[in-house]
Design a protein that fits this description.
The complex is a heterodimer of chains A (155) and B (661). Chain A has 155 residues and is mainly alpha-helical. Chain A has helices spanning 2-13, 30-41, 59-73, 78-89, 104-134, 142-154. Chain A folds into two domains: 2-96, Cytochrome C biogenesis protein (Helicase, Ruva Protein, domain 3); 102-154, no CATH class. Chain A is built from six helices and no strands. In chain A, helix 2 packs across helix 3. The longest helix of chain A is centred in the last third of the chain and has 31 residues, at 104-134. The radius of gyration of chain A is 30 Å and the shape is elongated. In chain B, the strands form two sheets. In chain B, strands 2, 3, 4, 5, 6 and 7 form a six-stranded antiparallel beta sheet that branches. In chain B, strands 1-10-9-8 form a four-stranded antiparallel beta sheet, with helices on one face. Chain B is globular, with a radius of gyration of 27 Å. The chains are: A mainly alpha (155), B alpha+beta (661).
């Protein structure tokens, strides 16, 4: 089931599912190109289902890739390029949502759950140890003693 | 006629499932043996009826019976036979029929193999299992019936999406469902135990084989999907943190945690409440996966409205089962008596750490998958949560898990000796350190943390091997004794070691291919040669070709290494006739060191073609690792102490087995 239905959608949304960077887009400067690739992986192809512009070969993704490279060659920093795209297309374009009031739950719930679980495990452990310490150790019954001596003799 | 038999069987199965839901539970309440036994008969009858229904649909697909709407929409007479058969479950209605068939298969298996179960527990388990069947059969019959006729019947069908016409993908859904649906047994056992109020180590022993089986199939199913995505989607990736992938990954994570916590419950009568909760949560995540994939909420919250009946129906099923089970849990949990205590450093403690890390990582995947949907529904803000988020939240949790993994099996129950264990792992630590240093020395390229990450894979592998070596007293006792001990080690101990080793192998593949992939994207003219990762690839041009139901353009690349021809790669682009769709087939040369992966792109001016060259080092280790994990599960399952339905005989297991646990 898993991939089926995404793929059905994927296939309708784009003609050929292949990695998308085209030879003519690649910048001469390898450092700048590497930065462009890094940025591309963080940006969503807006018309695709859950693909970065680096992965998608939709025409819009190509336009965005070229735009990223244009801004980089003009001397923008990585952050400036990303801010430019967010200003233009909204936050939806970011595959790594920004830490802001509306994404606080998203970013913090796993770490908080982790810390809370450690605390809960600690409390449960303490409570359980106290319970056991408080409960008086029961003496063995006569029957249990007989069984114990029998077992000890066997070994 | 055959379709009518199938349709009729499907309706009859619903009736039988209703009986299975009501009679045995009622019988268990009243102590009526005859009613309780009805559960077994109903479960077997339900399976037979659904098998007939499924066969009828399969016959309709194989014979291209276009009087069935479902066949018209998803098949084509010119399709190869394999894809006519896999087309049965390549669509919503048919895959739902497979889902209920497998659900009934598990119910039937519990009825047949669960002879040693206490009658009231068995009756309740089958009753709960029956209620899940009722819900899904109602869903299918009311909203997604595969046996609806088309009137008038067309001459030709619309065909199966070509991207799904692939051998690996044909068998991916059945394995995945065996996993998803297999967790329903753990769920039914948990609910049945809450109803009867008796939860003891024997319960864990009964549940573990079923959980293990489901986990094995889910491992295989996810792995097949990932492998398929790797070679078919044509960009060399193997995991995309796609919501649909996450929908299958969450039950896997939760099921993995369940396997480990059930171990504590079985051996030490501890962690009972938690294990029951995990059994409920694991199947709940399976249900949620079904909901996410089938309701259409995934593309956008708004597409929920395009098929409200289906989405709302599954949401209803989820609310009833998850809500009902959790309410029962809340009502009954406090009456569960807690078992033995243990020190923080102990086998139990290590398994608690395992559960802490795995469930937190599962929660991270959960929140990342659902948060965008929830936010859009509540505030209307649209955000994307993609791979960078999951790598940042899921990744860090895996580091302590992998570091701690080799320690667990060495620690004694109740109270462990961490220094002693560290000593026993010293060889593994030295091996790991040497490998990391060697990798630093030989590979200047790539992220500087990558060799350390690779070291974690080595550490897990070396740790698993050390465990077996230690148990067999290797290098510390005469060889005859070592061999005797190796022979007598319980299969379950081997299962643990092998499964952990598989994780290590997978980590090697993941790290190597992520950190050291090479890539070249070039416009290449016929006759030109490209060099990547020590291979010379000469492009021989592109030729057209005709397949059974597609036309394709095939490129030829002659691969040479050190001047000698090794192989020829044939990456191609296909254009399918029905429905009209294009796909790419990558040309892959696989070796132990890594995959050479070539994708043919568009034709450019002057006869040049866009060609994408990748070298993915150790990438096969990812899937080999999952196969090893599957095999580890199989070894554990074959242990006589765990054999399905044999808890009584297990107690009389041979006393001469090495005292490994």
């Amino acid at each position: 089931m898993v991939r089926f239905f995404t793929i059905v959608l994927l296939a309708w949304l784009m003609a050929i599912p292949a990695k998308a960077v085209e030879p003519d887009e690649i910048l001469k400067d390898p450092v700048l190109e590497a930065r462009a690739r890094g940025i591309s992986l963080e940006l969503r192809c807006l018309v695709c289902q859950n693909q970065s512009i680096d992965d998608s070969n939709a025409p819009l993704a190509r336009d965005l890739r070229i735009l990223v490279r244009k801004r980089l060659t003009k001397g923008d920093s990585d952050g400036e390029v990303i801010n430019f795209l967010v200003a233009r297309y909204g936050e939806f374009v970011l595959l790594r949502p920004r830490f802001a009031p509306h994404t606080m739950i998203l970013w913090l719930s796993a770490p908080i759950l982790f810390l809370f679980s450690i605390f809960a495990i600690y409390k449960a452990y303490r409570r359980r140890s106290e319970e056991v310490a408080a409960a008086p150790a029961k003496a063995l019954t006569a029957k249990e003693k007989r069984e114990l001596t029998k077992l000890l003799k066997q070994h | 006629m055959i379709a009518e038999i199938g349709h009729f069987s499907l309706l009859l199965a619903l009736g039988v499932a209703l009986a299975q839901m009501i009679l045995p539970i009622w019988g268990a309440q009243r102590g009526n043996q005859a009613l309780m036994r009805m559960g077994s008969s109903a479960a077997q009858a339900q399976f037979v009826l659904l098998l007939i229904a499924f066969s009828a649909l399969t016959v309709a697909y194989v014979t291209s019976d276009f009087s069935l709407l479902n066949v018209v929409q998803n098949s084509h007479s010119a399709k190869p036979m394999l894809y006519k058969v896999s087309g049965v479950w390549g669509n919503h209605e048919g895959s739902l029929l497979l889902w209920v068939l497998i659900l009934a298969l598990f119910g039937c298996a519990v009825a047949v193999f669960g002879r040693n179960l206490p009658p009231d527990l068995k009756a309740n388990v089958l009753g709960v299992q029956g209620s899940i069947s009722v819900a899904f059969l109602l869903f299918m019959i009311m909203t997604s019936n595969p046996f609806i006729r088309a009137d008038p019947a067309p001459f030709e069908g619309r065909g199966l999406n070509p991207i799904l016409q692939d051998p690996a993908l044909s068998f991916h859904p059945p394995f995945l469902y065996l996993g998803y649906v297999g967790f329903s047994v753990a769920f039914s056992f948990a609910v049945a135990a809450l109803i009867t109020g008796r939860i003891d180590p024997a319960w864990a022993r009964w549940v573990r084989p079923w959980t293990l089986m489901a986990w094995m199939f889910l491992t295989l199913g996810i792995s097949m999907g990932s492998w398929w995505a790797y070679y078919e989607l044509g960009w060399g990736g193997w995991w995309f943190w796609d919501p649909v992938e996450n929908a299958s990954f969450m039950p896997w994570l939760s099921g993995t945690a369940l396997l480990h916590s059930a171990l504590v419950m079985e051996k030490r009568d501890s962690l009972k409440i938690w294990t029951i909760l995990l059994a409920i949560l694991t199947f709940s995540l399976s249900l949620m996966g079904a909901f996410l994939v089938r309701s259409g909420v995934l593309t956008s919250v708004h597409s929920f409205a395009t098929d409200p009946a289906r989405g709302v129906f599954i949401l209803g099923i989820m609310v009833i089962f998850i809500g009902g089970a959790l309410a029962l849990f809340a009502h009954r949990a406090q009456m569960l008596r807690q078992g033995g205590i243990f020190a923080p450093v102990s086998r139990e403690g290590s398994l608690v750490l395992n559960n802490l890390l795995i469930t937190t990582s599962c929660a991270a995947v959960f929140i990342g998958t659902l948060y965008p949907l929830a936010l859009e529904a509540v505030t209307g803000d649209k955000i994307s949560v993609g791979p960078p988020f999951f790598n940042a939240t899921f990744g860090p949790l895996m580091i302590p898990l992998l570091i701690a993994m080799p320690f667990g099996p060495f620690l004694a129950w109740k109270r462990g000796d961490i220094l002693g264990v560290a000593q026993r792992l010293s060889v593994a630590a030295v091996v790991t350190a040497l490998v990391v240093i060697a990798v630093y020395a030989y590979l200047a390229r790539g992220p500087w943390l990558a060799p350390l990450a690779l070291g974690m894979g080595i550490w897990v592998i070396a740790g698993a091997l050390s465990e077996v070596a230690f148990r067999a007293k290797m290098f510390r006792a005469p060889w005859e004794e070592v061999f005797r001990r190796l022979r007598n080690l319980p299969r379950a101990a081997y299962g643990t070691a092998v499964a952990h080793l598989g994780v290590g192998v997978m980590v090697l593949g993941v790290v190597a291919t992520t950190a050291w992939q090479s890539e070249k994207i070039l416009a290449v003219k016929p006759g030109e040669t490209v060099n990547i990762a020590g291979y010379d690839l000469r492009f021989g041009g592109v030729a057209p070709s005709q397949g059974p139901n597609y036309r394709e353009q095939i490129g030829v690349l002659i691969v040479k290494r050190g001047g000698e021809e090794i192989t020829r790669l044939h990456p191609s682009k296909r254009l399918y006739d029905a429905p009209k769709t294009a796909t790419t087939e990558a040309g892959i040369y696989a070796s132990w060191g890594g995959d050479l992966y070539v994708v043919l792109g568009d034709e450019l001016k002057e006869g040049a073609f866009t060609l994408r060259f990748y070298f993915n080092p150790l990438v096969r280790f990812i899937w080999i690792g999952t196969l090893i994990m599957f095999f580890g599960g199989f070894l554990s399952l074959s242990d006589r102490r765990l054999r399905v339905g044999a808890p009584k005989r297990a107690r009389a297991a041979p006393a001469n087995a090495a005292p490994a646990e």
